[in-house]
Amino acid sequence: MSSCRLQALLEFTTTFLNNADVTLIEGRGKIVDPHTVDVNGKLYSAKNIFISIGGRPFIPNIPGSECAIDSDIALDLPSRPKKIAIVGGGYIAVEFAGIFNGLKSDVHIFH
Q: Cα(first)–Cα(last) distance of the chain, in Å?
């Protein structure tokens, strides 16, 4: 999946949310009480609040990290790797392990 496909997926998701009458508020948030969230200094209240933490790939500064790629770049590889080590044990790491396993790469997860 290329960055163009990622952008298309983001646009689809945004359109889907807009069509479902969902208000998307982006920013750094803090839960104030069971029905109120503070996002960038502005308070929002609702009966139900859904919080999505939208993370970004991060490569730690450890020996060998100069050889690492993140999940965004993994989607743009020109060919499948014969062997791949995935660092992390969250759902994204497991999804990528499944993807590369399906491509017949030799997959190892380090958590």
A: 25
Residue 69 CB-density burial (10 A; 0-12 exposed, 13-18 middle, 19+ buried): middle
Could you tell me if 75 and 98 are in contact, meaning their C-beta atoms sit under 8 angstroms apart? Answer: no
The SS3 of residue 84 is strand
Token pair of 11 as six digits: 């646009």
Taking the model in full, what pTM does it have?
0.56
d(CA 13, CA 18): 9
Q: Which two three-digit tokens encode residue 71? A: 């999940």
Q: What single letter denotes the amino acid at residue 45? A: S
At 2-16, the pLDDT tens digits run: 567 667 777 888 888
